[in-house]
Every structure is written in structure tokens, then in C-alpha cells.
Amino acid sequence: MSLSLPIYFLGRTFVLHTRINGHQFKRSLKTADPLVAKLRALELLKAVHMIGRGGPKITDFSFGAEALRRYEVDLRQGILKADGPDDHARMMQAIKAMAKLAPVPRVEPLPAEPVAEAKAELTIEGLLEKFLALKPKTSEGTVTDYKATVKQFSDFAKNPALSKVGDHVTGYMEWLAERGNTERTIDKKVGTLRALMNFAKKQKYFSGENPAAERNLLTRKQKNANGHKFYQLDEVKRIFGCEEFKALAKTEPNFHLMAVAGLVTGVRVSALAALTAADLKVSVDGVRYLRIRKDKTQAGIRNVPVPQSLFEKLEAYLKEHGGFGFSARGDGKGASDPVRKLLNEHLARIGMAGQDFTFHGLRKTLNNFLVREKVEFEARCQFIGHEVDHVNLGVYAEPFSVEELAEKVGPAQEKLLALIGFM
Q1: What is the value of pTM for the model shown?
Q2: Burial class of residue 379 in the structure, from the number of CB atoms within 10 Å of its CB (0-12 exposed, 13-18 middle, 19+ buried)
């Protein structure tokens, strides 16, 4: 029986042309000799059979199965079987032929991506620079405090990166305590770090928890209790209604006027010390008031009604002297030092030294008195210079006019002036 193979003569050579697993398979046998072509076709078909399933088998052609020596190669399952040394040799030869028919594709390595240079992490000192650059209206006092605290912390912790700030906060607090800092002072300095780290989180300079959060040593109640002392009304009368204080109108007229103004206006000491005659105004309806152009907070920049009797004395003094003569500190801390010194001297003269009275305590005393006099909350906040963060007031209501404010707080101011016998 003749051998029938899927080959034909094309041009000058024989070609094997069949289908393997539903796909055409065509290869040149590179010979014009029919016998050589058949032998090469058989070798190719054997190799193809080894690597495919369902393709033509040698037994499909004109060979008797009993006359064939067979070996088995199943590369999918990793099975290699041979019947004796000769079959093993032929199997190895077939595997080499398969390697030529189905070469392993060359995998070209992907071009290496350029490695980005590591960006240096922002440090605590660098953060302060960015904070001040983005918040140019920060008050001088706050700038001074922040710079001093950051420098101290940076010196202690070696200017740490923001991710390392948390490693040093507790150690910094302990270090401050060892050097005699009070709980209030420690809380204030850690509060500066907390504010800066909150800023870093908002501006995406830092991610994660704020390492200075919830580190206060004093509770809110303790902090309020340890704050500037209120003056009781009898103490107000004794301190500012005595003959020794009235005598200061001649010996220390600048301090005398500032103390009275602090009692009935609630303006902070440094803002009062910065007043000039140009800051004393009279509205179209005749209401006297102070124009506070610079203060510790934005809410402190406001118009403050003043009783006429005090206004006239302030105006006369400032027109004559140009100012109160209390120089602000060079570090932006204001003019509180010389005023505090004169107040302490006066308290010592009248036997009331060492009782924690401060100039800022006058501001608290006035607000407390306004509460007792039933002055409404919104008017008190505007008059004292406290911000009220509420949509009803911030968006849906305008501030009181200076005339409206004077009508609400004027009676309480006059009562305080009468209490100390101010003429």
C-alpha cells in the first residue's frame, strides 16, 4: 500500500501542507526529490504530533502499528517515555527538532524607568517659613512666639523632619519642665507645635495624626481658673477710686488714663498704648469712640464707644503728647511691660501687691460686668473684640453701628466711672 502524505510540488521544491488543531500548517521541505520529501514530511509530522493534540498521527498513514517503535513525549504534563536506548536517542532528536520548530520567544527587558530623585522631607523650621509666607497678616506677637518656640524645639530635637516631630514632643515637654516652665507655659509651646502641624496637614505637607494633639497638661477648667484674675467691684473701687490713684493723674497721667480706659473699654494694653489723637473719633450722631487699627486678633480691630468725660481727657492728652509714651518691645510683644510695672507699683503703695491683679484682668472684669448688666451676647462680643463664628451673625446679620453699641454699653460704662469717682 503506497504512503499518502499531504505534500505537493510547488515551483522547485516539495511543500508539506496540512491542518493542525484547526490551523493551517505549511512548511517547505527544501527538496525536489520525492523520496527525500516524504522522509522529511514524516519527521515534521512526528514532531508536530508530539506538541499538539488532535493532529495527524504516524498511525494515520500507511504503516503497520505493530512494526513501529514508539516513544512518548507529553510536554504539557512533563511526561517523557522511551522504549530502549535507540528510542531514547530518537526522542532526544525529536525534542531538538521541536525546539527548532517552536523556538522560545526572546523576551526583551523593559527599559528601566528613570528613578525620581528623593524629595527632601520638610522640617519643622521649613514648615514655619511656609506658614509665615502663606499667612503674612499674622500678628507680630504671634510671629515672635512661633519663632521662639520653633527655634527652641528645633535646637532640642535637631530640626526634625515633620514625620519625626512626634518622636520628640514628650521629651521636649519634660525638658521644659526640668527648666522651670509652668504647665501653662508648656501647654502654650506645645500648642504652637500643634497649630503648625495642623497647618501642615491642611496644606498636605504632612499626613497622619497630629503628634502634638491632645497633649495639654491643664484641662480647660484649670486653664480658665488659672487665667487673669477678675477684679471684684469693691476691689475696683479700692484700687482705682482711692486718693493714691487719683494722684497719678498728675504724676503719671499716661498710666492713669490708660488704666481707666482699660476698665471701661476693654481694649488690650498694647492697642491702647498705640493710640494717637487721630484714633479718637466722633460719629455723625455725636458718639465718641476709639478706632482700634491694630490688635492681637482680627476681631480686636474695631470701633469702641467711650463716655464723653473720658474721651475729652484722652483727646487732650494725646493732642498734647502725641501718644502715651509706652514703647512697644522690639520682639512684637507690645507695651505691656512698663504698664504692668506701674500697676504693680501702685498696688504695692496701697497694700494690694501679690494678689495676681493684671491689666488684662480689667478686660475680663468689664465683660463680666456687662453680663451682669444684661448686655446681650452679640453686643458684648463686638464691643470686647471677640469673634463669633456663627452663620447667623457672620452671614445673615451686620455688626451693630457704633451708635447702637454705645446705647447698649454706655450705661454700664458710666456706672464704672461713677464707682471710681472719675471726674
Answers
A1: 0.61
A2: middle
